[in-house]
Amino acid sequence: MNYPVIDKVIVELGPLSIRWYGLMYVLGVAAFYLLGKWRVRRRLATWRTQDLADLVFYGVIGVIVGGRVGFVLFYGMDAFLRDPLMLLRIWEGGMSFHGGLLGVVAACWVFARRTQRGFLEICDFAAPLAPVGLGLGRLGNFINAELPGRVTELPIGVHFPCDSVRELTMRCFGDYESVTRHVSSLYQAASDGVVLFLAVWLFAARPRAAGQVSGVFLLVYGSLRFLTEFVREPDPGRGFVAFGALTTGQLLSLPMIALGVYLLVRHRAASRTPP
Description:
Elements: E1 9-13, E2 16-19, H1 20-42, H2 49-74, H3 77-82, H4 97-115, H5 119-126, H6 131-143, H7 162-165, H8 184-203, H9 212-228, H10 248-272
Antiparallel strand pairs: 1-2
């Protein structure tokens, strides 16, 4: 089976073009807002719809700036040094989740300061709303034929277009690669957009100590990302960066797992400490 070639551009309007990758970000923001609006109405009497709209505004800035800067720092420094303007061409793809997460954390901190709310309260509110957007982002990667998986002989493998793997191998001639690969973008779309969403949303359905919902988000995402990286081809030019087997994505996920565990257990540890 060949990887489906989908036009990255949905429609062109003169000099402007609407791309699938950008549309996935718009849908992700819309999902965040609609799910947040449901939570505000059903569960959070101290929040107003305007508060949610303001948080979305801060979060979008954090995602775009943090995601793009993180991509350059973690994965694309060589390309940035050759062409500094690539930092601004976000429509071409190239966004780092870990950079975007740091950007969102910074946005939550600023929002918490401006609204006189607790930082962990803001993070716990945002955590269940984010996974749908993450899954949609991976669908954007799938449409762009990005994130090729590792070579496999399993029947679920597909032939990737040579254009999408040319940086990985010089042995690709013609339209499609001769070997088959895992479709890691779809694996991560399912893990981020479905498994992570269900885990965090259901956990947040009951009152939790401050930071615990964020802890589940970090722990589950970090674990899923660590596992799915085993079927995703290491990034071009970087390869395996530790122990001959771990990728950059896996190394960046380890602090997330550790912080997630800490946020989950710190409340229990504090409750056992005598006054």
